[in-house]
Automatic annotation (TrEMBL):
Coiled coil: none annotated. It holds the Pfam family Cupin_2. Residues 62-119 form the Cupin type-2 domain. This is Cupin domain-containing protein. It comes from Variovorax robiniae. Gene3D superfamilies: Jelly Rolls. Transmembrane segments: none annotated.
Length: 133
């Protein structure tokens, strides 16, 4: 069966790497985010950003939470990133690996490398994050 996305006006967009595009006003204060302009180009259908961990991991940063999304994928560009998922166990992404997080799956980040860099794709562009603790 073929899945179809609801049609919405979209624009062509190109995003070139500029260090000044990494901002620290995102979801987590221990990360910087580079918006790839997909949300604006798709009228909120999707969001794609590069996430850099800018602080060393500390256990107090582990907060059990979930995201109210339709789709979420994380791809590791550099280093490693580890998370514990309810019902799926503990998994570590390393450069070149990815996971798809089902909508609403509860999880806790348990560590990352100092050079960790991730690509994250979300649908819709502005999902709600809910702390479960």
């Amino acid at each position: 069966m073929e899945a179809r996305l609801q049609a919405s006006p979209q624009q062509f967009v190109v995003s070139h790497l500029k260090e000044e595009d990494f901002k620290t006003d995102g979801l987590r204060d221990y990360s910087s985010y580079r918006d790839l302009a997909v949300a604006a180009a798709t009228n909120g259908l999707a969001q794609v950003h590069v996430i850099r961990m800018i602080a060393p991991f500390r256990p107090e940063l582990s907060v059990r939470h979930h995201h109210n999304v339709q789709f979420q994928m994380v791809y590791c560009l550099k280093g490693w990133f580890e998370t514990e998922f309810d019902g799926a166990g503990r998994h570590r992404l390393v450069a070149g690996s990815s996971w798809v997080q089902p909508p609403g799956i509860r999880h806790t980040v348990v560590g990352w490398s100092d050079d960790c860099e991730l690509l994250e794709i979300l649908m819709p562009a502005e999902p709600e994050t809910v702390n479960d603790e």
